[in-house]
Task: structure prediction
Amino acid sequence: MEKIYPRNYEPVHKADNDRDPSDSDTTLTVRPRRHSVQQFLKRNLATITITGLLLILGLLVIALIAAITLQPVGQALSLEHSSVYLDSHHDGQRQCLPAAPRTRLSCGNSTDEAEALGCTYDPLSACWLHRECPHDYVTEFTEFNNGKPFIYYYDKEMTRQMKDYDEVGRNVNGFYWTSNREHLVHCLYLLRRAHDVHMRGDRLDTMLADLEHTDHCTNMLTNWLRRPDPALDELGTQGQTHCFMSCS
Result:
């Protein structure tokens, strides 16, 4: 007798609009619909975008914290001397960022302390300066007055004169009186020192780095050049007009 093999029929899904609400046929199996990837992304695009942005922000915060911890930015900005000049200012000081950190060479706060630290008196700046700091144009300054030192006094009445630059540097009164010519020559050669120091990337002392002192010197030179002097108005300078420059 021939065997009858039952056939396995897959239940047929009715369309939603074709399904009879009263149909209670339990043989129909309702299978859940599978959402495609496109539908999932479309429905959850806002959530995915916000989550991605938050993750990126978190990574940036972690990277910033790591950079500050490993190489403090403040240390790089607080370096006082430089071989590379950057035109920025802070509290009247020109800030120069060096290619490599340099040890600050101080002269202390007294003559004895300055000598103990390896400093000598610098007539051009009228300050004690470390021997490893630039001392450009000291000879030109001290010999400007026909080879003789400028005249310095303890008082404005010119009753007590100082004999040499060493006595000026060791004056415990903290000040001196001298001629306007000395002051003008001081400003001229300090500006030349600043230029040479910058060009070779050498150390920058406190006075050269002080923007207020530079402004003071340029203003003083300007004011003296405004004084009436027939020699200044005489024809004696030949200029050049076919001049073309570059900057870097």
Observations:
- Residues 45-70 form the longest helix (26 residues).
- Residues 1-9, 18-33, 72-95 have pLDDT under 50 and may be disordered.
- The beta strands are 85-90, 93-96, 119-122, 127-130, 152-153, 161-162, 177-178.
